[in-house]
Amino acid sequence: MKTTFFGTKLWEQEYLQQKIAKRALAVEPSFVTDIVTPDKLPQDTSAEIACVFVDSVVSKPVIDALPNLKFIPTRSTGYDHVDLVAAAAKNIPVSNVPSYGENTVAEQAFALLLSISRKIYLAYDQIRETGSFKFDALQGFDLKGKTIGVIGTGRIGKHSIKIAKGFDMRVVAYDPHPNQDLAKEFNFEYMSLEDVLRASDVVTIHVPYMPETHHLFNEKSFPFMKKNAVLINTSRGPVVDTQALVMALKNGQIGGAGLDVLEEEGVIKDELDFIVHGHPEGHDLKTILANHVLFDMPNVVITPHNAFNTREALQRILDTTLDNIEAFLKGAPINVVKK
């Protein structure tokens, strides 16, 4: 079966080729370094299986442009970049990778937090730029004894709780579906979202992006937070209203933010392409400008959607993706996601 892997790096291609041969999968693999989007349709449209990552946009125009398409495995846990309705209309199943890096993403969340709490980047930049070892402006704060609010207690949230306990932090949590066994195991309390925000010195977000979580953090949410609280987001950019976050930071409603994801991050990644070929009417230009304001804030640390990016996690993603493809070929798809 003709299988195209979009947005793959050389080492991923080599890894996949070896594993496909070892498993003797009945696929004809081809590898494309470019992502696929409505503006970047592939020249070869014969794919029966289109395997993508989160930076591809598999919308209806893309699905319609691949007339032989039968299956969409995404190399990610999130699947908001795939139009599930358009896929379902053509009876095309979509499978994801439910778990690959709960520890990986949680570790990145705490890396961002420590960068802020101990002013790691500011200290490094000071030494690199000026050679100064003065620490007058580099006073941080301990995590021990602080309260962390974990928003979403699934696999990644659970691991974040484990790490927080290692730092001797008090944990409170919000989840629309509380796991009381987990709360008992790790000795934390579920609260309403507003109460978690009121209680927390640090808030870390681990929810999927869906209509219910769009702008979960907004101009009404931030006033509940402590003046010196730190917000960490390693989930999805649109969970946080960027313009509201900028105002909360500028007005001193919260103390700082560590962000691995941003709204309109696709535009930010390739602004030149957006200027030349983009469609401004399909994007929020105010949000794009707000991102640039965040870049220059000393109490904000931003990484480029990198939380997933360890060798071990990526290999787990590829292995599970091949599991998904193998199951589909056998007529019994696994890890199928639905609208």
Can you give a write-up of this model?
- This protein is of the alpha/beta class and 339 residues long.
- The chain folds into 2 domains: 2-100 and 311-329, 3-Layer(aba) Sandwich (Rossmann fold), CATH 3.40.50; 102-302, Rossmann fold.
- It is 38% helix and 13% strand.
- The protein has 13 helices and 12 strands.
- It has helices at 10-23, 60-65, 84-89, 102-117, 120-130, 155-166, 180-186, 193-199, 242-250, 265-269, 271-277, 285-295, 311-329; strands at 2-6, 28-32, 49-51, 72-73, 94-95, 147-151, 170-174, 189-190, 202-205, 230-233, 256-259, 300-302.
- The strands form 3 sheets. Strands 8-7-6-9-10-11-12 form a 7-stranded parallel sheet, sandwiched between helices.
- Helix 6 (155-166) links the parallel strand 6 and strand 7 (170-174).
- The protein is globular, with a radius of gyration of 21 Å.
- 38% of the residues are buried.
- The model has no long low-confidence stretch (mean pLDDT 94).
